[in-house]
Fold each of these.
Amino acid sequence: RILEVGAGTGSSTAAMLDGLSQSSDGEKMTSRIETYTFTDVSSGFFEKAQEKFKAHKNILEYRTLNVEKDVSGQGFDLQSYDFIVAGNVIHATADIKKSLTNLQRLLKPGGKLILHEGIRQDYLWSGISFGQLPGWWLGVEPIRQWNPWITPAQWDVILKEAGFSGVDLNLPDRQDPNLHTQSLLIGTAVEPSSAQPQTVIVTTTQSGDSELITALKSHLELTLKIPNVSAVHYLDLANTDLSKSVCISVMELERPVLSDLALTEYNNIQHLLVTCAGIIWITGDILTNPSFNMITGLTRTVRWERDIDEVNLVTLSVCEPRPDVNDLVSSIGRLYSQQFISTLTADKINGEYMLRSASFFSAHV
Ligand SMILES: C[S@@+](CC[C@H](N)C(=O)[O-])C[C@H]1O[C@@H](n2cnc3c(N)ncnc32)[C@H](O)[C@@H]1O
């Protein structure tokens, strides 16, 4: 199962299909590819590609995919591809680490990413031509301020940060280093380890088996493929190591806990906010009951106190009339995915959201 991103006019596709798809076995043509998913941010390339690759139509499918956006939200199954081909596309995105993280999530553990990229910033001809186009200047990373390409050593670092083994193989276009301008870089998606952050749903339900918790847990595990999801009662928080946990607090969906705190409640909630690796704190409707809005002030203070941790403390008020459990769970999943699975720049963390009529509202401009 192969996915190609930014397939465009299909030059990488042609090479892949020639190499892998059909091999002569006497009279019979055989293919080593089960499906080849040809994607691009724009569907404008598909008609020509369908014509160009019509001999392979039994294995090819055409879908739009923006590698900068959440991939599960675009209808792609996580951990479902053996290979991803990205020919001269990732450098054309704003945040390389975020794009690579999105691709990593689509690969099966052990799956390979085949990147074809320019690797020289000192070859100025490309900037003279492509620099006329705004897309050349999208990169947000300081190392890409003047040229979107980076070296194989820099790819190695970012690949590792995005959940890959790094650059396993670097195949240069020329052996002479003076003439080497492009590389094929191969990396492997690393199996999620048990050291991965845990996801903890904080609840006031002692057994942790309310309809919402059960649905949320199964959405996180089955749809978002998040391992290690557990439910913890809010009065057990102080006994739980939360330092690697992203928490989803649903306790204030039931009642405004913060506005009437007993000492034990305070101690547990303090431990949660001061030690967790990240949180989505969900409350009832702050428009009809201002007591639910105390978390907004509290998290603003905790963010100052924890600024060195770069912790992401997110709040979400669910307005009346409340969505049904399935809609609520999928909205929470979307927010979780955007905040804790995608890689966010510093200005995108610590959001304060309101869910109203199936739309997210934010206080950020
Ligand atoms: C330089 S072309 C490379 C095309 C093709 N891979 C090749 O090697 O011939 C870059 C391609 O990436 C696509 N692209 C740009 N930004 C993208 C994004 N965010 N997600 C997916 N594709 C994107 C463009 O539409 C374009 O087709």
Amino acid sequence: MSAASIPKEYKQIVLHERPARGPITDTTFETKTVPVQQPKEGEVLVKVEYVSVDPTQRGWLDDVKSYLPPVELGAVMRAGGLGRVVVSKDDSLKEGDLVSFYYGWQEYWTGPAKLLQKKIVPEGGKEIDFMGLFGLTGMTAYVGLFEIGKLKDGDHVVISGAAGAVGQIATQIAVAHPNCRVTAIAGSQEKLDYLKKLGAHDVLNYKDKDFKEQFKKTGEINVYFDNVGGEILDLALRQLKPYSRIVACGAISSYNSEKPVPVYNTFSLISMKSTMQGFIVTDHADKFAEGAEYLGKLVKEGKMKADYHVLNGLGSTVSALKEMFDGKNVGKTVVKLSADGQSKL
Ligand SMILES: NC(=O)c1ccc[n+]([C@@H]2O[C@H](COP(=O)([O-])OP(=O)(O)OC[C@H]3O[C@@H](n4cnc5c(N)ncnc54)[C@H](OP(=O)(O)O)[C@@H]3O)[C@@H](O)[C@H]2O)c1
């Protein structure tokens, strides 16, 4: 990118007001136009090419104790991203390098080069996979199933939110694991068809009237990979085999609710001598190289395919976050910022 084509100003999406317990609204965020900051010694200017949209961002808007502090009012919305160095004042990075970081929902970022991770696309690979399969999404599925879920040959693995970002990778890992039987749960027929194509043995729509009966018929569970919490978790608890493992990955059914959906059947953890463990993927960075190698091998063997729900322009971030709670996405949601760096706001 020539210096002449770097704009003087760019757009960012900042937190305007915290939503009450409930969905984000039209006044949760606002768009600001700010001047591009030229980097100082040791810094770089990055043109952000992709930004992430994740359910956990809903939690970052609430002023409550969590694994990260809430996004401050007036601050750029926190989000992972992938971008390209356009000006470098640091020897470790040069113009054109692909770099990832929590740039936030904005078109440009200026800051210390040492914060960034340089990414090199492997032969035959795709840049977008750093936002999904080889990013935190893929690592969540990998760490969740193997480190937390202690996945074993022959396990019956049940995955909720199975057609989403983490769920689609977890489903394919479990399908590829020797002799595992995989039950995948999602919220539409289109998603069930998709999960069948990924190799899931049983697929269930949790919105079906007879979902409870259908779920019961799938039998006892060794590993429940829980992306949604609430009622589905409660049903899974009733079906545990002795020494089973619940991977508490997410609880999207409660992120927009005033009160979390109650879960009653926790006594099963005792009677079935089972574990339920929460985790945050970023605590497991020591497993990421191993995870990327594992997932890369599955890709080469034709057993893993990552899908993306790609939207265009910075302005799509807010609607994408809203729509995630209506299940509009199949695969990992990312927003591609338009080629000239200007959003379609
Ligand atoms: N622990 C960690 O480190 C970590 C890391 C990444 C993500 N997570 C968590 O993992 C979960 C999945 O994240 P993701 O990025 O892969 O999102 P995602 O699955 O791509 O998107 C969310 C999906 O959740 C489903 N959903 C929405 N509301 C629901 C409800 N009330 N009940 C059941 N399903 C509902 C929707 O699909 P349907 O059409 O099927 O309803 C939607 O597409 C989230 O809970 C997230 O917070 C945890």
